[in-house]
């Protein structure tokens, strides 16, 4: 009988050891999965909680993430209350004006000057040298041509630019016809990107 109790005790101890090993194996597997998740997640700082060698750094990052989750909870709760109470977040009022000023309008042609006016002139040479695409394909050949010393790009633009009277076909403001005389031309050398 004593031998039977001894056998039962041994089986129980063996079973307990197997349970400990199985528990440890499950614990190690869970730890590995959590560490893998922490290493590859896009949640910022999460991997520092699991991968950091320093215990203090782990605690700091855990605290920061916990504070972030708490802050998220409060934001969610407050916004949910606003949603349930149908609170207005944006207000809009319309004001109708009886008389409106003539608006500022910019009419800008893509080309600085009319090609028909600048062919084989210093202005054409100047623009070709500024054109990166042409320079890429023609290279140094563009730099061989020189503009005359008295060439002034501003004067050339004023002289050869597009004329609003030719560009403006129809114009009407508050059912009153308008023309190019209602516009003030301004010379601008804004860089186009």
Chart the SSEs and their pairings.
Layout: H1 2-40, H2 46-51, H3 55-84, H4 115-118, H5 122-130, H6 132-138, H7 140-144, H8 153-160, H9 164-167, E1 172-173, E2 176-177
Antiparallel strand pairs: 1-2
Short description:
This protein has helices at residues 2-40, 46-51, 55-84, 115-118, 122-130, 132-138, 140-144, 153-160, 164-167; strands at 172-173, 176-177. With 193 residues, the chain is mainly α.
The average pLDDT score comes to 78
Percent of residues in helical segments?
55-70%
Strand order of the largest sheet: 1-2
Report how far apart the termini are: 97 Å
**What is the general shape?**
elongated
Total helical segments: 9
Radius of gyration: 40 Å
The assigned structural class equals mainly alpha
Overall strand count: 2
Secondary-structure element sequence?
A: HHHHHHHHHEE
Unreliable runs: none
Overall number of domains: 2
Largest sheet: 2 strands, antiparallel
Strand content: under 5%
